[in-house]
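STRUCTURE REQUEST FORM
Protein name: NADPH-dependent 2,4-dienoyl-CoA reductase
Source organism: Parashewanella curva
Requested output: structure tokens
Priority: standard
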Amino acid sequence: MQYPQLFKPLDLGFTTLKNRVLMGSMHTGLEEQKGGFEKLAQFYKERAEGGVGLIVTGGIAPNFCGRAYPYAAELSNGFQLSKHRLITDAVHETDTKICMQILHTGRYAYHPFAVAPSRIKAPISRFTPWKLTKRWIRSTIKDFINCASLAQQAGYDGVEVMGSEGYLINQFISKKTNKRDDEWGGSFENRCRLALEIVKGIRAKLGTEFIIIFRLSMLDLVEEGSTWDEVIQLAKWLEEAGVTIINTGIGWHEARIPTIASSVPRAAFSWVTAKLKGEVTVPLVATNRINTPEVAEEILKSGQADMVSMARPFLADADFVNKAEAGTPELINTCIGCNQACLDHAFELKRVTCLVNPRACFETELNFESSSNPKRIAVIGAGPAGLAFSIYAAQRGHKVVLFEANKEVGGQFNLARKVPGKEEFNETIRYFLAQIEKLNIDLRLNTRFNPETELDFDKYILASGVKPRDIPLEGIEHSSVISYQKLLIEQPTIGERIAIIGAGGIGFDIAHYLLEPKSKTQNKESWLARWGIDQNYRSAGGLMVENDTDITPKQIYLLQRKNEKVGKNLGKTTGWIHRSELKHHNVITKTGVSYKRVDDNGLHITINGVDEVLAVDNIVICAGQVSNIELSQQLKKMGRDVQIIGGAAEAGELDAKRAIRQGAELAAVI
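Status: completed
Returned output:
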């Protein structure tokens, strides 16, 4: 077997997990939708059929105050059991186990009934929490135990008690948020009392043959977080209290350190789980940015953990485990850590899905059944939209010929993957190529589609993408001016002083490309040092007293026409990371810019009526793009049946999420 450690059963004493793969908790948004639990049942069923050993659901509140927002999911009454049984019955058609996560958000709750150990407002919430009284704390403990009991009645094999990420239990544990002077605060033992009484109460109520996972914050990444000695002590107390498994929690939501974004190196935090090995005897779970079976196997083989938790990889591919067990990892649709359709959607209160797998959380709505009328289809352009349409249409039995004028597939992905921190895009291209081979799609590279000669098709799908927008700038032909596409494709040597025209996502990517060597973003040690994470854990929260201050010598200006915050439309959960990187390297941003001309003196601009010359060596044009649709007009004039998807249909800001979904949705009905 290719991954022997991954597929070794794990004996928990009273039950056995068939492998070492835990599907980590993800709130999908279906929990709150009408009919959402029917959709959730299919979502979890397909992951169970895909081979996962243990599933943990999205967080469910034990009471109203613990809800993430007013209408978020809660399990506190028997009448709520029937919808949960839809999930457990579906999963238990297989030999997969499933646990429900109990999540009390504490001061992170986005409503006026938020509660916490002390009346301290979270920086990421608009609501100041109410301080829990002693009686209220006791009531909350009972609510946790009641929630676990109801989960057992609903058929769950266990629960995960959420004790990390800065939620309520974590808020009690940390000095940062617990300023109490009673038996629930002060000493470390008192601050851990809530966590331990919850676990002890669940174990006493539900007996010995019920899985209790505790999500332990092993690395808070905030000031006044837990020390390493405290992490060890709490882990030992939790083992004594009766936990079955300890899962690793990394970072609070308010921490200004990325923990799961694409730019985070793979398995960047498995070292902290490894530090706890030997301190307790219960199984330990490593987590965060584990997205391939190779990475998971190495963590287990090296003894860093007893299980691996992967969450978003199961949005990307429900059959991840089966494909790994079959020895076909090349067929896995790999999570690229982009956050665009999962976490961004979750924090915008939208249904979660996946950029590379638009069917995620749409399992009952987006399917690719065999066509009763197979067609011969020409797909023009092998960017994200064209690739997605081609593989889904081929799955339905259509005969697809995929035309690509360039020497490789990928379109804008081929540019994105050259940006440091976005190397994961390579995996998506690898996946598409493997599917093209498996489905016998006729891929014609270096072939520009000729409408005059390619006549033998029932349908024409135009996915020709975008081209850079031309801007009316005097001197744009100057040797110092270069487009972002040419910069990424040809990678010429450019100067130390650079102006970037356009501060959208592409502008940020280009700034990062110019500032950060790939070798540094891919190196785990360098990355941890850059973000001030101390593997020796000498300070509370695992933060370095002084972090890496390696600054590039380049001077970069990031310019935009609009007089608004730079990076305003970047991803909700990743935009702050990009802004932090630019600030770290002293990038100068300017808004409300009018561009006048380029000459040997540099870039001439005007801001608020004041003229200025930026004495730069190079100017990179990132001023947007326009749809590449000339061919569609020609095909329509010839009377061909043409449909347009991706950037060719709508340029805007480059949006692979939209492009792949359009390709999938069209393939499902064509």
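Reviewer notes: The first strand starts at residue 10 and ends at 11. Residues 384 and 601 are 40 Å apart (CA to CA).
Form closed.
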